[in-house]
Every structure is written in structure tokens, then in C-alpha cells.
């Protein structure tokens, strides 16, 4: 049996799973374009007689999604930048620089990945309160960075470990500093890992509900997940608005993943250099 023939049973077995995963999204998209009367009909997948694009405009204006999206973009940008600035140098140091306690530091990092954020949310809140960063976008950025740093360093270290040590030794002989080696050699060849870190950080930050719920209080600084819950609670009977607002909330991050999925897969499955 050829390899192509062997793949057919697996593909057929995945079809029901694909339908199960995509059905709720299809129902949500179709319902968001219906009138209020059409949403209550028996067939949830029935195509509307007229596409109600006005639902999205109404939801955007009534729910204040412009401000929510702006806050979320600021939050994502801050987290992604800080993750790159901290995780890339730390991953390089743990993989290529020999110093006392390096292995124990790596073990402590792995241990940190096992601790749920709920276990440290009280001391984290106290730290942010002491810094005067509660109920601010800067505070939620720092909180989410502190939660994501262990995985980010682990990802970058795993990728940098595959780079031959001879590259570092040759660069050191030529007089390059570790900072120059990182910026001029490692980062250019680690684009898949960097993209994977960016996408994972952006996805988790955009969808995070727990930390913004703890840190952000005022509606004017809340992100999409908090604003969507508040909007759905206020207009619980206006299904067309709730469905349209839900689509608005996840559409940007879905587009990001679609545009970068190839880099995302490469970053999780490939090393920087083979051999």
C-alpha cells in the first residue's frame, strides 16, 4: 500500500472531528448575520434571507468594541515585545553560556511552568498594587509576561540548543560579544522559533480572561474577553448583537493564526540548524 493510500483512512477518521470543531463556528457566523426573528427558528444553520451586516456595526458601536480592541492590541503588543526582549537572551544564556548554577536555574524554570497562575495570583496582585499598576494596561502586561516567561525561555532554549557550539566559538575567536552573537547570528537563523513565540504569546494574551479579571477594573482599560462578557450580560436577549460581538472578538486572532500558521508549525517542530 502506497503512502498516499495509507493516509486516506486517517483523513476520513478526522472528518467527524473537523465537523465537530467547525460546527459551532459555522453556527455562530450564520447566526450573527440573521435578524432577531430568524435566530429563533428551528434550523440554526439555515442561511438568512438577507445578510444583516448592520448587526456588526450595531454591536461595534453599542458595545464599545473600538476601545476594547485598542486595549487588547496594546496588551498583545506589550506582552510580545517584552517576551522577545527577555526570553531570547535568557534562552541563549541557558543554552550556550556556561556559568555556575545554569542547570539548577533551568530546573527551576521547568518547575515554574508547572505552577498554575491561580496559585500565585494573590502575591502577584500585591506586587502590582505596590507598584501602583493595578487597573492599568501596564499592570496587565507585566502580569501576563510574568506568567508566560517560563515557557518562552524554554522554547527559545530548546531551539538555540540545536545550533552547533562551533558557531559561538568561531564568533568569540573573531572578537564578538555574546550580545553580538545573539543579535547577528542566532536571531537571524531562529525566525521560526521567534515567530512561534510571538504567535503563542499573542494567542494566549488576546484570549486571557483570568488575569485581566483580577487586574483590570474600569471598563475603559478592559480587554476584549472582559468587555465581551460585560456586553453579553447587558444585552443577553439581543442575540444578534451578542453573536456579532463574539465574532468581532475572535476574528483578529484567527486571521493572525491563518497568516502565520506555517511559521508557527516550523517553530515548534524544527531546529535552527541540522547536523
What can be said about this structure in brief?
With 275 residues, the chain is mostly helical. Helices cover 76% and strands 0% of the residues.
Q: Can you give a write-up of this model?
A:
The protein is mainly alpha-helical and 275 residues long. It is built from 13 helices and no strands. Residues 271-275 have low confidence and may be disordered. Helix 3 (54-62) crosses helix 13 (239-269), helix 4 runs parallel beside helix 7 (137-161) and helix 4 packs across helix 10 (191-207). The two termini are 32 Å apart. The chain has a single domain (57-269), classed as MetI-like (MetI-like fold). The chain crosses the membrane at residues 73-94, 106-125, 137-160, 181-203, 241-259. This is Carbohydrate ABC transporter permease. It comes from Rhizobium herbae.
List the helices and strands and how they pair.
Elements: H1 3-32, H2 36-39, H3 54-62, H4 65-96, H5 102-114, H6 121-130, H7 137-161, H8 165-173, H9 178-189, H10 191-207, H11 210-215, H12 224-234, H13 239-269
Helix pairs in contact: 1-13, 3-13, 4-7, 4-10, 5-7, 7-10, 10-13, 12-13
